[in-house]
Amino acid sequence: MTVYKIAGSSTAVAVALTALSGLPALAQDGAFDWRAHEGETVSFLANNNPWATTVLEYADEFEELTGIELAVDSYQEQQMRQRLLTVMNARSDEIDVFMTLPSREGMQFAAAGWYHDLAEFAQSDVAPDYDYDGLSRALLDAATFDGVLTGMPLNIEGPLLYYRTDVFERCDVAPPTTLTEMRDAAATIAECEPGMTAFATRGLKPALPYTFSNVLHNMGGSYMADGKSNLCSPEAKAAIELYAGILQDYGPPGVVNYSFYQLTSLYRAGRAAMSFQSSNEFPAVMEGGDRLEDTGIMPLPAGDGGSVPTAIGWALSVSGFSDNPDAAWYFVQWATSPEMQARLALQGIAPPRSAAAENPDYLAWLEEQPVRQEWQAALGQLADTGSSEVGFPIVQNPESREYIGQAVNAVLLGQATVDEACAAADADLNALIERE
C-alpha cells in the first residue's frame, strides 16, 4: 500500500504545462472556472492499475490548474476493493472519488446509494472542451443504473491472447483460430519448450470470471437461462472443462493465485508462450521492450459459439457520501478529459472516446510498432462485438463471481468433476438469485 499527498509547484510552471499539454485552462467567457474550489481537498481511492498509475504522473498539473489538493490512497485491486467496502459500508465521507467496474459492482453499489449521480454535473458544470457526447455511449449506458450515471468512462478493455511469435515459429505452430487449436498449440509448445509455461490465464477465484466469461460465451454458453443458473448446460460444462484443463495441463505452478499482476510479470519475463489477459496490461507487458518484437495479439479464438469477446471499462465515480462532490467532480472531469485520454492513449491506455483513437499523434504511435497495431485492431473487435457480461447479471454480481471461480478451481485442483462442480455452483447461485 502507498499513501501519499501530491504536492504542487509554481503557477508559472502550471501555465507552461497547460499550454504544452492542451489541458483546459480557465474558460475565457467566465462560464466555467477551474479554480472554483481552490483550497479544497479531494481524496481519491485508486486501484493501482495502468490507468491510475499513468494518470497520477500528471496529478501535479491538476493541483496547479485547480488549486485543489489531491490526497491519493492507492492499493492493488483486491485490497482497494476491501478498503472501499469498509469505508462505504460505514457511510463515511473519507473517500470522495474512487475507481469502479460498472460491469462488476455497478448494480450493487447503485442500489446501496454509493454513487453520486454525475449526469447533472456532466451537463451543467463542465469545461467547454470536455466533449461529454464524445464518450462511448455504450460505456455510459453500462454505467447508468435506474437513471443514475454512476461514473465517467476511463478506458475500454477486455482480455486478449498475447502469444510469442518466435516460439510459435520455432515449434512450427500456427496462431490458433479456434479454442481447440489453442489447446493443441499449448500441447505442442509444452513438448517443444518444456522449460516454458505454454498457456497462462487467471486462476485467482474472484478474478477468474473476467477471462472465463470469454471462454463461456465463445463456447455458446450463458450464465443464466429462464431465471436460473446455467453452469451445468453442456456449453458451460465444456467451457469449465476447457478452462480448467488447459491450466491444469499447461499452466504455471500456483495458477490459482494468478491475476493480472502475475500474468504480466510471467509473460514480460519471457516465461510464457501464451497469456490470455487484459488488454489494459499492454503497457506493462511491453515495459522494457523485450516483448515488442516477438509478440502477437488477437482476441480469444472462436469456439462452438463463435467469437464473443469480453468488453468492459473502468469508470471514475464520486462517492454518494462525499462532503465535497463538486470539487470531486472537477478531478473526475480533468482525469477523463479528451486531452488526458489522448495523452494516456500514447501510453497504451485504450481511450473511450473515438476522437482520441483517431488523434494523429496516437495513429503515429500505433505505426511505430506492428504489435501496437495488432492491439488496436483487437480492441476494435472488442468494441464492435464484445459482451459486458462478466458474472451473473444480478445485484449480487461480485458474489456470483466467487461461485464461478470456485467451480473452475475445484476442477482445476482435482477436487471435483465438472458435473460435481457445476451442480454445487448452480445450487449456490440459484439461492443467490432467489435473494434478489
From TrEMBL:
Residues 1-27 form the signal peptide. InterPro entries: Bact_solute-bd_prot1, SBP. SUPFAM superfamilies: Periplasmic binding protein-like II (SSF53850). It is found in: Periplasm. The keyword GTP-binding does not apply. The keyword Signal applies. Belongs to the bacterial solute-binding protein 1 family. This is ABC transporter substrate-binding protein. The lineage of its organism: Bacteria, Pseudomonadati, Pseudomonadota, Alphaproteobacteria, Rhodobacterales.
